[in-house]
Design goal:
alpha+beta; 29% strand; four-stranded mixed beta sheet
């Protein structure tokens, strides 16, 4: 079995601490243990830089809602994530 080493993982700069404006983003509902599951899936299946963090938004009823924001530097990784991540199935 071949193990593919990802250079961004070696340098520990793959998951960024803030979401740059050029990242493609989406928001998902906060649920128990979903952060670990999604971050693990991203680490196993994608290779580019990404952001995962908590964000506060106004919903349609103009109430404050806390969500997870997920962003990817490469738009194609956002597309693949939205189509293939099984953890989004129940959103």
């Amino acid at each position: 079995m071949k193990i593919k080493i990802k250079e961004l993982d070696v340098l520990e700069i793959r998951r960024v601490d803030f979401c740059p404006s050029h990242f493609s983003t989406t928001n998902i509902e906060r649920r128990y243990n979903i952060e670990n599951a999604i971050v693990g899936w991203i680490d196993r299946h994608l290779s580019g830089r990404y952001y995962f963090g908590v964000n506060v938004l106004l919903n349609k009823e103009r109430n404050i809602e806390t969500v997870y924001t997920i962003g990817f530097e490469q738009p194609k990784e956002m597309s693949f994530f939205m189509l293939a991540c099984p953890h989004l199935k129940y959103q």
